[in-house]
Each structure stands twice: as C-alpha cells, then as structure tokens.
Amino acid sequence: MPRDLTTYPISQNARFKLIKSGFVTKEDLNGFKPNELATETGLTVQEALDVLDIIFPANSANLASDIIGCSALDVLLDEKSQSPITTSCKAFDLILNGGIPLTKVTEICGCPGAENSNVFTTLC
C-alpha cells in the first residue's frame, strides 16, 4: 500500500507544493533528483533535498537498520532539529519547550473542566 506524503514530517509549505503538483504518495517521488523535484514543484533545491532526505533516508532502506546505524548523538541531534507542534498558547508552549514534540508520545491530562480553571486561563 502506498504511503501518503502527509504521514511524513514535511513542512506545510513543501507538502502543499508537492500535493498541488500531483505528488501524493512516497512512490510518486521515486527516481527524482532534488533539482528535478524543485523544477516540478516550485520548491527550492534545498527544500526538495530536505523532502527527499526525509522520505528516502540515505543510510538505510528500513527503520530497523536506521536505528541500528545511529548513535545516541545522532538521535539527539535529529530530535533537536525537529520543530515542535505549537499549541497556540504561549505559556503552554513555554512549559513544553516550544510545543508538542514530534516523534514522541505526549499525554496531556487534567481534571474535568480544567480548561475553565483559573490556572489554565492564567497560562493562556
């Protein structure tokens, strides 16, 4: 089954340009070089290179060999390079170091009606 491009951590701008140009699945990008993809989609060559690096990791063909081939430093640097998802609440994003982190399980819980509490209102 083809993997949809929306399942990859690609920037919203790049995703929009890819989909607008007819690239919907991973298989649609097979065989493209960064300059060819840039020409087809209107992305910069660097953006196209970043997209291809995300979709087709250079070091491995599957996730298992990716994990085995990485050091802890590689994983940490990769984690630090990813932008978190903002919650649109400055104080809450500050607590979460910029927002909800990608590639991690994040659970946010509270008492029923917590969104109406003075603490939450004060934060946001």
From TrEMBL:
> For this UniProt entry, what is the primary localization, expressed as one broad class?
nucleus
What molecular function terms (GO) are annotated for this protein?
ATP binding; crossover junction DNA endonuclease activity; four-way junction DNA binding
TM regions (residue ranges)? none
A Gene Ontology cellular-component term: replication fork
Sorted UniProt keywords: ATP-binding, DNA damage, DNA repair, Nucleotide-binding, Nucleus
Give the top-rank taxon of the lineage listed in the UniProt record for this protein: Eukaryota
GO BP annotations of the record are: meiotic DNA recombinase assembly; reciprocal meiotic recombination
Compartments reported by the entry:
Nucleus
Task: Please report the name of this protein according to its UniProt entry.
Answer: DNA repair protein RAD51 3
Source organism:
Caerostris extrusa
Q: What is the lineage of its organism?
A: Eukaryota, Metazoa, Ecdysozoa, Arthropoda, Chelicerata
